[in-house]
Specification:
307 residues, alpha+beta, D-amino Acid Aminotransferase, Chain A, domain 1, D-amino Acid Aminotransferase, Chain A, domain 2, 2 domains, 9-stranded mixed β-sheet, 6-stranded antiparallel β-sheet, 9 helices, 30% helix, globular, binds 3-[O-phosphonopyridoxyl]--amino-benzoic acid
Length: 307
C-alpha cells in the first residue's frame, strides 16, 4: 500500500525539518533554499560570467575570510565585474547567514554573477550583479581517504592556458576542471591531476598539490597556472613555522611519481594524503610523516578559533 509521503515522517521530525530549512541570501534578502532562484537570463548561467569563492566555517567563523574576499574582489576585477557591496558588509552577511542557518562547522559558497541580461555576450546589457551566499553543512571526503590516502590519475585535459583565462580567476567557468574531474571519475578517482600547457604539474581539479622529498616540501609556483589556494598559502606558512623548507618549483609528473609523500590542499578537503598517482605507489604507499604533521597542524589551527 502506498503511504502518503508525510505519513512516513514522524510529526516532530517533520516540524524539525521545516524549522531547519536552510536560508540562502540573494542580494541580502533571505529565501528558503528551495525558493532561492535567479533569472534564466543571468549571464552567470548563460555564459559562466561571474566569480565565486568556496570557504569553510569553523565554530561559526569563516576561516581566512579576508583572504577569500580579496581573492573574490581580484577575480571580479580581472573580469571587469564590479561587486556592488562593501567588503565588510558582505562579510557581515556571510556570518549572519551562518547564524541564521545554525551552522558552526560548514561550507559557504559565495557567488557573484554578471546579472540578468539579453541573449548576447555584451555585459553592458545586463542588470545588476547578483550576490548569492549559500551556507550549508559540509560534506567532506570520506574519513578513510584521510587515513589511507587517495589515489589519483593525471587527466588529459590541461589546466586553462594563463593567456586565455587566468587560473588565478575563480570564475564560474569551471568546465576545464569539470572535464578533468570526469576523467578522474571514469578512472575510479575522486580527484585528478592537471598539467599546464607546458606539461608541468599544475594542480588538481579543486585542490592544490604538494610533494615531500628528502624532508623538503615542494609545490608548483603560481606561474605554473594554478589557483592561489588559501589552504595552500596556510600550509606553506605552517610548514615554514615547523622549520621545514618549502620550495615553489615547477615540477613534472616524474617528480610526483618519485616523491616520498604527496598531499592535496583545499578549503573543503583541508590537507589530504595521496598514495597512488597513475598507478604508481608514492613513497611507502601510506600517508607519510610530514603529511600527517601538516594535517594535524592545519586541524589544530582551524579548530583553535583563529580566523
Ligand atoms: N585549485 C582549484 C582549481 C580550486 O578550485 C583549490 C585549488 C583550493 O583552493 P582553496 O583556496 O580552497 O585552498 C580550489 C578550490 C568544491 C569546490 O565544491 C572546491 C574548490 C572549488 C570549487 C568547488 O569542493 N576548491
Amino acid at each position: 500500500m502506498k503511504m502518503p509521503l508525510r505519513a512516513s515522517i514522524p510529526h516532530s521530525e517533520f516540524q524539525l525539518r521545516i524549522r531547519m530549512s536552510l536560508k540562502v541570501s540573494i542580494n541580502g534578502e533571505l529565501f528558503d533554499k528551495d525558493d532561492a532562484k535567479i533569472s534564466v537570463y543571468d549571464h552567470g548561467l548563460l555564459y559562466g560570467d561571474g566569480v565565486f569563492e568556496g570557504m569553510r566555517s569553523y565554530g561559526g567563523r569563516i576561516f581566512r575570510l579576508e583572504e577569500h574576499l580579496t581573492r573574490l574582489w581580484n577575480s571580479a576585477k580581472a573580469i571587469w565585474l564590479e561587486i556592488p557591496i562593501a567588503r565588510d558588509v558582505l562579510g557581515r552577511h556571510i556570518h549572519d547567514l551562518l547564524k541564521t542557518n545554525g551552522i558552526q562547522d560548514g561550507y559557504v559558497r559565495l557567488v557573484v554573477t554578471r546579472g540578468a541580461g539579453t541573449l548576447g555576450l555584451d555585459p553592458n546589457r545586463t542588470s545588476n550583479p547578483q550576490i548569492i551566499i549559500i551556507a550549508d553543512h559540509i560534506s567532506l571526503y570520506p574519513q578513510e581517504y584521510y587515513e589511507n590516502g587517495l589515489e589519483i590519475i593525471t587527466a588529459s585535459t590541461i589546466r586553462n592556458h594563463s593567456a586565455a583565462l587566468s587560473p588565478r580567476i575563480k570564475s564560474l567557468n569551471y568546465l576545464n576542471n569539470i572535464l578533468a574531474k570526469i576523467e578522474g571519475l571514469h578512472g575510479g578517482c575522486i580527484e585528478a591531476l592537471m598539467l599546464n600547457h607546458k606539461g608541468e604539474v599544475a594542480e588538481c581539479t579543486g585542490d592544490n598539490i604538494f610533494i615531500v622529498r628528502a624532508g623538503d616540501v615542494i609545490t608548483p609556483p603560481l606561474d605554473a597556472g594554478i589557483l592561489d589556494g588559501i589552504t595552500r598559502q596556510t600550509v606553506i606558512i605552517l610548514a615554514r613555522e615547523e622549520g621545514l623548507t618549502v620550495y615553489e618549483h615547477a615540477m613534472t609528473k616524474y617528480d610526483i611519481y618519485t616523491a616520498d609523500e604527496c598531499f592535496l590542499t583545499g578549503s573543503a578537503a583541508e590537507v589530504i594524503p595521496v598514495v597512488k598517482v597513475d598507478d604508481r605507489v608514492i613513497g611507502a604507499g601510506k600517508p607519510g610523516p610530514v603529511t600527517k604533521d601538516l594535517t594535524r597542524l592545519f586541524r589544530e589551527l582551524t579548530r583553535s578559533g583563529v580566523v
